[in-house]
Amino acid sequence: MNTDPLELSRFIKEAAREVGFDLVGLAQAGPFEETEARLLDHIEQGRIAGLAWFNADRARFSCDPANLLPGVRSIISLGISYLTGPLSEDKPALTGRVARYAWGQDYHTVLKAKMQTLFERISQHTGSQSARLLVDTARIVDRSVGQRAGLGFFGKNTNLINKQFGSYIFLAEILTDLTLEYDPPAWGTCGRCTRCLEACPTEAIVEPWAVHNDRCISYLTIELKGTIPEELRPGMGGWVFGCDICQEVCPYNKKAQGGEHPEFQPRQAGDDAPDLLAWLRLTESEAAFRQKFRGTPLLRTKRTGLRRNVAVALGNSHDPAALPALQQALSVETDPIVREHLEWAIRQLEKPES
Ligand code: SF4
To answer: What is the mean pLDDT of the chain?
Structure first.
């Protein structure tokens, strides 16, 4: 059993790439004090207001990896690109949009399986069983881990940007008691670019590196379970699950290398560019919704959330062709929140300018 930090670090990096990760970096596991101060400031300024559970205690907890694994020494920071093939070519007249990360299989499942394989190889090599495997959890500050481990730097849109793969990357972490040879933190800059701040239609990026989460379209379409504030609905355009605008305009993403991961390609034609009228019909039935989106991130918004979002996107289309479908949907809808959004959409299409 060889636990020389240099040799072990080489072994881990090679194994991570063999298992299918595009990025791997190693960081020491001390507390993230700067991130903690920044998060507490965001909470105080009300920028995380939409996520009531993300309070000061949670922020403090997530900034010290020792809370998750007593005796932790190192973090293996992992990244995988989800930038895949082109958008659907044949788009229906009324097309919505889905954030790239949700086109394919649920990334939690895909990344967990890869991490498990990697962990087994590491523990066979070292004998160490003490580890925590994490994918996209608010109990650790994953972007700060990635920055410390050299994976990428923070863009003004708060995404982690890797110079090779851009910001279309999923992050995962293995906390371990092993001592490793650490990578230098990532360095990079947006320079004078402010494209993402200007492009955000709901003005959610209130200043560089500060997103007001309850204005963000990702929050509005996924996390928010109730009524979408009326003044923010027009800015949502056709987005029915998540949003990529601040990433699409980013120069780093324009030249980003794609990943080779078929798991993240659209499972069926139209998953990346949904037919809004078809999804309005589909979401009438819980069984049909579950069957279509089983194993994908879209289950997270639940049927009524997706139906609410589709109603907003149809309202934003200003296309009267959607009126009969919206009226039919309203005639069978019993959920008061969805009903209110359907009524709003109908009003948009009945306005004289539409
Ligand atoms: Fe930075 Fe410009 Fe990308 Fe925004 S769009 S993250 S400002 S480089």
So the answer is: 94
* Residue 354 in this model has a pLDDT that exceeds 60: no
Which residues are the active-site residues? 136
Helix, strand, coil percent values for the chain (each to nearest 5):
45, 15, 40
pLDDT tens profile 115-145? 999 999 999 999 888 899 999 876 899 999 9
Q: pTM of whole model > 0.70?
A: yes
Alpha helices in the chain (DSSP H): 5-19, 33-44, 56-62, 107-126, 142-148, 195-199, 217-218, 245-248, 251-254, 276-282, 286-293, 302-317, 323-332, 336-350
Percent pLDDT > 90 in the chain is 86
Lookup: tokens for 105: 């299989």
Note whether 350 and 323 are within 8 A (CB): yes
Give the distance (Å) from ligand 1 centre to CA of residue 130. 38
**Which among 162, 193, 211 is the best mutation to test ligand 1's pocket, defined by most ligand atoms within 8 Å of the CB?**
193
Please choose from 195, 197, 205, 207 the residue to mutate so as to test ligand 1's pocket, defined by most ligand atoms within 8 A of CB.
Answer: 195
| Under 8 Å between Cβ of 310 and 276 | yes
Phi-psi region of 21 (alpha: psi -120 to 50; beta: other; left: phi over 0): beta
